[in-house]
Amino acid sequence: MASGGARARSGPAPDPAALRRDRDGDQWTVLPAAGRPSPAPEWPLTEPTGRERQLWDVLWTRPQAVMWERLGLELEVAMYARRFTEAEQPDSRVNLSTLVRQLADSLGLTVPGMRANRWRIEAAADQAPSAPRPTARSSARSRLKVVADGDG
Predict the structure, then answer these.
(1) Could you tell me the residue range of the domain that residue 70 belongs to?
(2) Where are the residues of the annotated region Disordered (predicted)?
């Protein structure tokens, strides 16, 4: 058995707000906060249950759906919806929940999944922009504060 070497998710997750994000170039994709406006595509698997159809329609309104459509991930999203509805059942197997989480990560439905795919959702128009991060760090000496001695 081989040991060592790179792993798929080894190291820290990419951060779009990192101080050195210029090294990433234009690798981050900004997804529209409003989501995907078009109707959901046709269900690609065997006949869906009512809950699968409901989840399918909701999933295709999310911002990530823009990329799913571009990448042709209809089957993967349908499989996620099917397995998610199975995992919701009280008597479902534990490993099914693990599979659902892995599928959610790969589809960018979780924060780690969004970072791994290098996707971020644009700020909504009614949302105030966050304060910019400082680009230069001050020295430790300049951050020290003189405290007057209480004796005297």
Answers:
(1) 29-123
(2) 1-49, 125-152
* Concatenated DSSP letters of 55-74: HHHHHTTSTTHHHHHHHT-H
pLDDT in tens, 123-141: 866 655 555 555 556 666 6
Instruction: Tell me, yes or no, whether 81 lies in a domain.
Output: yes
Picking from 110, 86, 108, the residue whose alpha carbon sits closest to that of residue 96 is: 86
Give the count of domains, the chain: 1
Between CA 37 and CA 140 the distance in angstroms is: 50
Token reading at 135: 């680009």
β-bridge pairing 29-31 and 119-121: parallel
pTM comes to: 0.69
In a domain, 132, yes or no: no
Residue 115 falls inside a structural domain: yes
Q: Name the token pair of 61.
A: 């309104």
Tokens of 65: 């759906």
Question: Is 99 within a domain?
Answer: yes
